[in-house]
């Protein structure tokens, strides 16, 4: 599952009531927390996490995260790595949903995802979340104060259909639910990195296989976040200079994973280059196979196209039913009271997908 809160998918820590010893932004760093003993700054020992001062008044400390990818949260991880004598005694995690980019003071309707739980020092605490709603923000509360290294929110992306209807999008991007379903090898770096939204900063931010010493080639199989008709593939080999694939090939996969039509025949790559190729348009695609010939690494892979109308209908229905009540009222109006919908009422479909959305 994708970490919906991670800075790697553009998550942000929008506010915290205190961050005296260590900054709130560390909570969502994608890398594992590190520690170097006896490294002191103006406020004391430097910690790779979020740490508040010792509380001398009643209350709790908190930090609010705007999810980089809104969606259904399945599991929360509160990691106190390297915090031993300065971790909180307890924590709780709450969620809310809102359109746009509200200030923290504008966020209301908080719902508890993880009730108050005890914490231990230098340990990952995993909490399963049974809630099926779509969330945009999380609030971590710690009792009464202390330090947390990382907050993870693993779950399923659920994009807003209003942002996709009628627009070309990256059909396989992690932000709309694209994900890796199979991979021949990922020795140096995981294939999931291919689908992250921002450009890779260094070679290690991409995907790379070991050196192939036998016949055949390496490959990655991908499920599209939203099925659609692709028009353009972007194969980004930046940072890969002596280890880019010699060539790539792109093939559509059917629902059972068997190869279908060829979207892009074998074509050579240049090291350290971002390539853009037109692909063979046709029927909507749900999955694809990217062949690396024979092996090597890539920074990112994009597949731009138009979402399929039937897939958008299904997405809009799921989105409308997954909105928490206060947000549903704001988005759907009085019609929110009739949920769950089996099919979207015509006016709501028009509001979510546009009055001229194809049927």
TrEMBL record:
Its EC number is 3.5.3.4. Signal peptide: none annotated. It holds the Pfam family Allantoicase. GO terms for molecular function: allantoicase activity. Pathway: Nitrogen metabolism; (S)-allantoin degradation; (S)-ureidoglycolate from allantoate (aminidohydrolase route): step 1/1. Coiled coil: none annotated. It is an enzyme of class 3 (hydrolase). It comes from the Bacteria. InterPro entries: Allantoicase, Allantoicase_dom, Galactose-bd-like_sf. GO terms for biological process: allantoin catabolic process; purine nucleobase metabolic process. It catalyses: allantoate + H2O = (S)-ureidoglycolate + urea. Residues 11-157, 177-306 form the Allantoicase domain. Keywords: Hydrolase, Purine metabolism. Belongs to the allantoicase family. This is Probable allantoicase. It comes from Actinocatenispora sera.
